[in-house]
């Protein structure tokens, strides 16, 4: 996944969503369907949107670009809470 693909996929997932659901996206014991179902129950996204966001986020993580995505979010114009979440994950994941 190159930089352009990373940014495009991250924007499709949504920075707030990527941070809010980062632990679930990184949890290999949860299937895409499990995460999407949890997300749909908690958020105001359609089932299709939840599947798409989960798939995109996991594509970023599986490509080894999760840390890069967190850095992009930390340096973005996202809201302060989202940016702080990215910084927290960056510092806690070594």
Low-confidence stretches: none
Q: Radius of gyration, Cα only, in angstroms?
A: 12 Å
Helical percent range? over 70%
Mean pLDDT reading: 95
Structural class: mainly alpha
Number of helices: 7
- The figure for the number of domains is 1
Q: Distance between termini? A: 22 Å
Main sheet makeup: none
Keywords:
mainly alpha, 94 residues
Descriptive report:
The protein has about 90 residues and is mainly alpha-helical. About 75% of the residues lie in helices and about 0% in strands.
What is the topological layout?
Blueprint: H1 3-13, H2 15-20, H3 22-26, H4 32-42, H5 47-62, H6 66-74, H7 80-92
Helix pairs in contact: 1-5, 4-5, 6-7
Brief write-up:
The protein is mostly helical. The protein contains seven helices and no strands. Helix 1 packs antiparallel against helix 5, helix 4 (32-42) packs across helix 5 and helix 6 crosses helix 7.
């Amino acid at each position: 996944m190159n930089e352009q693909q990373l940014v495009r996929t991250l924007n499709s997932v949504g920075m707030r969503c990527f941070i809010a659901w980062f632990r679930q996206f990184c949890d290999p014991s949860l299937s895409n369907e499990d995460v999407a179902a949890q997300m749909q129950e908690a958020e105001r996204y359609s089932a299709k949107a939840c599947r798409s966001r989960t798939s995109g986020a996991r594509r970023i993580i599986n490509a080894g670009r999760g840390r890069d995505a967190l850095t992009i979010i930390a340096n973005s114009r996202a809201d302060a809470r989202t940016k702080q979440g990215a910084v927290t994950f960056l510092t806690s994941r070594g």
